[in-house]
Write a structure and sequence with these properties.
- The complex is a heterodimer of chains A (281) and B (344).
- Chain A is built from 13 helices and no strands.
- Chain A has 281 residues and is mainly α.
- The longest helix of chain A has 38 residues.
- The C terminus of chain A is likely disordered.
- Chain B is an alpha+beta fold and 344 residues long.
- Chain B folds into 2 domains: 232 residues, P-loop containing nucleotide triphosphate hydrolases (Rossmann fold, 3-Layer(aba) Sandwich); 103 residues, Nucleic acid-binding proteins (OB fold (Dihydrolipoamide Acetyltransferase, E2P), Beta Barrel), CATH 2.40.50.
- Chain B contains 9 helices and 20 strands.
- Chain B has a 6-stranded mixed beta sheet, with helices on both faces. Chain B has a 5-stranded mixed barrel with strand order 11-12-13-20-14. In chain B, strands 15-19-16-17-18 form a 5-stranded antiparallel beta sheet, with no helix packed on it.
- In chain B, helix 3 crosses helix 4, helix 3 runs parallel beside helix 5 and helix 4 crosses helix 5.
- The two termini of chain B are 33 Å apart.
- The model of chain B has no long low-confidence stretch (mean pLDDT 91).
- The chains are: A mainly alpha (281), B alpha+beta (344).
- At the A-B interface, helix 9, helix 10 and helix 13 of A face strand 6 and helix 5 of B.
Chain lengths: 281, 344
């Protein structure tokens, strides 16, 4: 148990600090969120529903879910592999690998998009190959997935590495001496031990993947109804002065974010118990 | 011989962990690998389990080349210092693990597995705790579960890696007695790694003493205790007093007295060693002149700390109520070893 120093504020300075924090959060986070909903419903529920019930809006929602549904599992598999390598093997360049893994956190999303244009665009390194075989990557689903994967690459691995480091390899070694094979060890021992952290990472990754704008904007080509994800669709409708449309779409995205947040909170609560149990072990 | 380990060498990047290690274990024998940390005993255990491979050498078990078998075909049960219980499984699930991961063809039926688990829970005296999780058990209970889990696969060889290292002294003693009983009941050939000489001498049929990856001595506990073959073994087995002296035709010569010698064959000058409980203290007569620096009466024996004229430190042990009771800090006494050990 860590010592509890926290208590209710008693001094004027304490109250002022608390009031400032709450006001600032209200101004920076809550007000815009409320604004989204108020604007979306400013003309009533019918125009709101109508704005969402267009083929382009449907396509944007669908595409966003599709891209996330591909990108997140890819990152989950990569995250597990990377965490396994880093926590289970000793090799040269391990710390370098860890630094590179964090690169997507610090790099501008625009660059995360641009690299794919430079690789797979018409003038890109592999452009000629793709043209010859009539494969579309840029301005199509594959590049949207690639850009999203790149931006959200570290989320799951970063959740797993500290936990797996902490848990060590003893249980896996024990399983091996008891006759378990590789997959048995993974599914019966490793995976159950990391499942909550994995789920937590998947949620964070999903939230980020659905909301990604910069990288996706570069590679999308903005073909309405085809390569516009929800964030891009919001921008376009807004630029066309379709306020209700833009804010209605934004409310969907905000809704998805809030659902993720609620799930994340539930998990954190659940996961804390698991982690504490793991530490007690 | 059931287990034969022959000329094993193992080197980790430029660090020789094991050098030409050879020993054997009879069927059902309890062998202790004793050595300080870094002596290679855990490395040796991992080689036996198949978790690592030696650079050169042979390991065979009942005539079968063990090095050609992968870990799961060796049928070794291993117990770790950290328990390594599966934290998300109950005690019963932990014990059943080795049976449940067998290929379908070799797997026992559900009811058979259940019966085995119940039998083992009874053996480790935790019948009612099958549904608990490891985090709900004490350290001693966890280690018992770990042993039951290892025994569940009906191992041919049981490997214990400092199993009591993380437990407190009272629990250790209790588990030691208990492990002896289990070994007696199951009769599994057992290799036990420890750095605790008392544990090794108490438990094992034979002890293999390791030093920096080499076998220093092999023998029964009595053998090792009464006839340590090197200064290292002597010092490792218990506290040692050291005094300069010479050996002449099998007798140690000190200034004004002599003592029988174990160890050295050749005459010459030696650092002579003797145990705290194999020495006499008196107010006069022959012996090394010493001054009492501390009297330690708490414990199973009365202990005295002494300083020689040249600043050398000595320790002696006496039964409570003996003549030594009367000695006080500052007294000048004579220390006369009953027997000494000499090593080149």
């Amino acid at each position: 148990m860590t010592a509890r120093a926290a208590k209710a504020p008693k001094t004027a300075a304490g109250f002022a600090l608390l009031a400032f924090t709450l006001l600032w959060m209200g101004f920076i986070i809550l007000l815009p969120l409320v604004n989204v909903l108020v604007t979306a419903f400013s003309q009533g529920i019918k125009p709101y529903l109508a704005a969402l019930d267009t083929p382009d809006a449907h396509a944007a929602i669908w595409l966003t879910l599709l891209v996330s549904a591909i990108a997140v599992p890819l990152n989950a598999v990569f995250g597990i592999c990377a965490a396994w390598c880093i926590t289970r093997f000793e090799f040269k360049g391990k710390s370098l690998l860890l630094s590179i893994l964090d690169l997507p956190f610090s790099i501008s999303p625009v660059i995360s998009g641009l690299v794919w244009i430079l690789l797979f665009g018409a003038q890109g390194w592999f452009g000629f190959l793709l043209r010859d075989h009539d494969i579309k990557i840029v301005f199509a689903l594959p590049s949207l997935v690639l850009a999203t994967v790149l931006v959200t690459l570290p989320f799951i691995a970063r959740e797993l590495i500290p936990l797996m480091e902490d848990q060590g390899t003893d249980e896996e070694v024990a399983a091996r001496t008891l006759g378990a094979r590789g997959w048995d060890i993974f599914f019966r021992v490793t995976l159950p031990n990391i499942k909550w952290a994995l789920l937590y990472g998947v949620l964070l990754c999903t939230a980020r993947a659905m909301g990604e704008f910069g990288a996706v904007s570069v590679v999308s080509g903005h073909i309405r109804g085809l390569t516009d994800t929800l964030p891009l669709y919001i921008e376009i409708t807004y630029n066309q002065y379709d306020t209700i449309g833009a804010f209605a779409a934004a409310s969907i995205l905000a809704g998805l974010a809030i659902v993720t947040l609620v799930l994340k909170t539930i998990l954190e609560w659940r996961f804390a118990g698991e982690l504490a149990a793991a530490r007690r072990h | 011989m059931s287990l034969i380990v022959k000329n094993i060498n193992k080197t980790f990047t430029n660090f020789p962990a094991l050098r030409d290690v050879t020993f054997e274990a009879k069927s059902g024998e309890f062998i202790a690998l004793l050595g300080p940390s870094g002596s290679g005993k855990t490395t040796l255990l991992r080689l036996l389990a198949g978790l690592d491979t030696p650079n050169t050498g042979e390991i065979s078990f009942e005539g079968e080349n063990y090095l050609k078998l992968n870990p799961r075909d060796r049928r070794v049960g291993m117990v770790f210092q950290s328990y390594a219980l599966f934290r998300h499984m109950t005690v019963a699930q932990n014990i059943a693990f080795g049976l449940n991961v067998r290929p379908v063809k070799e797997r026992s039926s559900k009811s058979e597995i259940k019966a085995t688990v119940e039998r083992l829970l009874k053996l480790i005296q935790l019948e009612d705790l099958g549904k608990r999780y490891p985090s709900q058990l004490s350290g001693g209970q966890r280690q018992r579960v770990a042993l039951a889990r290892a025994l569940a696969i009906n191992p041919r060889l049981l490997l214990l890696d400092e199993p009591f290292g993380a437990l407190d002294a009272l629990v250790r003693k209790d588990l030691r007695r208990w492990l002896k009983r289990i070994h007696h009941e199951t009769g599994v050939t057992t290799i036990f790694v420890t750095h605790d000489q008392e544990e090794a001498l108490d438990l094992a049929d034979r002890v293999v003493v390791l030093k920096s990856g080499k076998v220093e001595q092999i023998g029964t506990p009595l053998d090792i205790h009464s006839n340590p073959k090197s200064a290292f073994v002597f010092d490792f087995l218990g506290s040692a007093n050291k005094a300069q002296g010479s050996v002449k035709s099998g007798v140690a010569q000190f200034d004004g007295f002599s003592a029988p010698v174990i160890g050295a064959a050749n005459d010459g000058d030696y650092v002579l060693r003797f145990r705290p409980y194999e020495a006499q203290l008196s107010r006069g007569g022959p012996g090394l002149p010493v001054t009492v620096t501390a009297v330690l009466p708490a414990g199973s024996t009365l202990r005295l700390e002494l300083t020689g004229t040249d600043g050398a430190l000595f320790e002696t042990q006496h039964t409570h109520g003996s003549e030594a009771q009367g000695f006080q800090v500052g007294d000048t006494l004579r220390l006369k070893p009953e027997r000494v050990y000499a090593y080149a």
